[in-house]
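Q: What would this complex look like in 3D?
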Amino acid sequence: MNIVVCIKQVPDAKDVRLDPETNTLAREGVESIMNPYDRHALEEAVQLKEEHGGCVTAVTMGPPQAENVLREALACGADKGLLVSDRAFAGADTWATSYTLAKAIESLGEIDLTLCGKQAIDGDTAQVGPGVACRLGVPFVTCVQKTRASSPDSITVERMMDDGYDLVRLPLPALLTVVKDINEPRVASLKGKMKAKKAVIPMVSAADIQAAPENIGLGGSPTKVVRVFSPEARGDRQIFTGTVEEQVDQLVQQLKAHL
Amino acid sequence: MLKIDCDKCIVCGICESGCPFAALHCEDDCVVVDENCTLCGACVESCEVGALSIEVGEKKVQQDLADWQGVMVFGEFRHGTIASVTYELLGVGRKLADARGVGLSVVLLGTDIGSHGPSLIAAGADLVYLVDHPALEQFREDAYGYALEKIIRLKKPEIVLAGATAIGRSVIPFVATLIDAGLTADCTRLEIREEDGMLLQTRPAFGGNIMATIECPDTRPQMATVRPKVMVAAEPDGNRKGVVESIDLDEKLTSSKVEILETVISEEEQVNIQEVETLVAGGRGLESEKGFALIRELASELGAAVAASRAAVDSGWIPYPHQVGQTGKTVHPKVYIACGISGAIQHAVGMQSSDIVIAINRDENAPIFDIATYGIVGDLYEVIPALIKRIQEVKSDSSR
Ligand SMILES: Cc1cc2nc3c(=O)[nH]c(=O)nc-3n(C[C@H](O)[C@H](O)[C@H](O)COP(=O)(O)OP(=O)(O)OC[C@H]3O[C@@H](n4cnc5c(N)ncnc54)[C@H](O)[C@@H]3O)c2cc1C
Ligand SMILES: Nc1ncnc2c1ncn2[C@@H]1O[C@H](COP(=O)(O)O)[C@@H](O)[C@H]1O
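A: Here is my prediction, written as structure tokens for the whole assembly.
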């Protein structure tokens, strides 16, 4: 089974914050990490490969430094990495990202299964997986919490719904996005780390994957960010003072209408 | 590309330290950008002397924008009922349609849906499109996706709204790709810009630490998803008039490759903290599972349901369906009482649109007080019992 895993390098979201005074991003100590959901997609790919044989290729679109997440993926069981990097990709929204990733995946030849994380924690959009599936012309389901069965030509999975789950069978080739419940990702072995360190990771440009210039990067993106700002505080707040009893009294006075 | 005007640049270093990707570097008389730049625009916003700008190439798929008119809502229908998010979308959709002076339509896909027109019209729709087809009985991405694509191409709405639910978040990005439209996920605010009628879509990014406003200048429709309970449904008006139209679609619909073998509805997921008027929420400040006994006592005194922060859920004190926040549920009760919750941004994004937020926390600097309507600074193990006692007194006073 030839499997592609889409992995994104993201800033550790909990550290990113706008300074409300200056409206600038405070980057103090923000680390770049592998998108946590993608770690689970990778683990699932490696488990499927262990069962069926084949090859797992980790693909990322990003700046040259995104190579780090591919090395990490190699250390955790991926066989190959592909870095899709070109200054012309910068500023891509989910539409242009899906286009670019699909082009890169197509350049790899016959792929049976593509796995994505449910969403990337920097944008939280969850749009790239379905977008890539659409471009590849393969069936897909999102938010997979368990693989029940797999064969060379189909896969049966539990897809999370708001009120439970659906058991779904898809013919291959297909695309899945996964949630964290699906598995417990392994930690990199020493051997894996050595292999990852030595590996040569190919880097491809827009021209290499035959991506049309008008469909990539900021220019190819239908959505444009026009403003970024800090979430605003509530205007009407009232913090009580005094003893606990006094504060409770003041609160209950205010709330009487609602009780 | 990021354009740097070295005549204006004063090499102050603000952009360098603010770049989330460490792509900017101060050199002797100008800042330079390296290939790590993702054109996120943070530096452009922060530059005080206007030395930075982003050059945008034109998107090729220029469409005749005037051909696209009206606001369309994807009505979510599952197990015989319309999801409440549909009514919320009709609420905001009505406002957008009125601001644009256009009609509001809603699409319902499924089987046996014929009777649902009136409730959708009462909620604000002018037009209800029904697609009743056996292939749409269960939710399947490809069948639903192709059906929506067809209807959008047929009716050409300028705006399409859908719920950011399991179903919406799965099928809508597929549809947006099929029709080459821009899509903004999980919007918390939608409004029309007066000058040019453009839809402005505001959403949280970076785990809610930052808000971003997004527009789709060159493509139609402008598509957005909205999480449940973020928008408010209008009071149903039975006197509203509207038109129900059945649409026949076939072909591709029947060739779905997604096969649903079984649908399992989980008992646990039924705890619905999104449907109640009052919520009492507990966080790590409870210090143990037992703390939730106190929370439940206060909740039952108020006829409220119990919610929690992720820290409380991760500690195993209460199951996940109770979690509020970015990775939990968004709630919009009349009253939200946060007990021993610090108010981290990821929690706040899920509850800050509550009408009244009450915070009980012993740390007066906790961020929860920034979003609270009323705050009590103190130990929750003293405050809550005192509050319960006081509420009981008030109740017995008024019943006397
Ligand atoms: C990607 C991501 C997604 C996340 N999603 C969510 C989410 O969906 N929902 C969510 O809630 N969190 C989420 N988080 C976690 C979030 O960042 C916080 O860690 C979490 O909300 C903290 O929970 P808490 O307020 O209960 O705990 P803490 O932050 O530890 O706060 C406990 C508070 O209790 C107070 N306290 C302690 N003892 C007492 C006492 N006796 N009396 C009164 N006050 C007391 C303390 O002063 C403190 O303010 C997410 C984080 C990340 C990175
Ligand atoms: N630049 C990227 N490179 C590789 N994979 C990506 C990229 N962006 C998104 N993905 C994949 O798409 C998933 C959803 O991302 P998003 O739609 O941005 O929330 C991620 O979990 C990744 O698997």
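A: To summarize the key features: The two ends of chain A are 61 Å apart (CA to CA). The first helix of chain A runs from residue 36 to 52.
Q: Very helpful, thank you.
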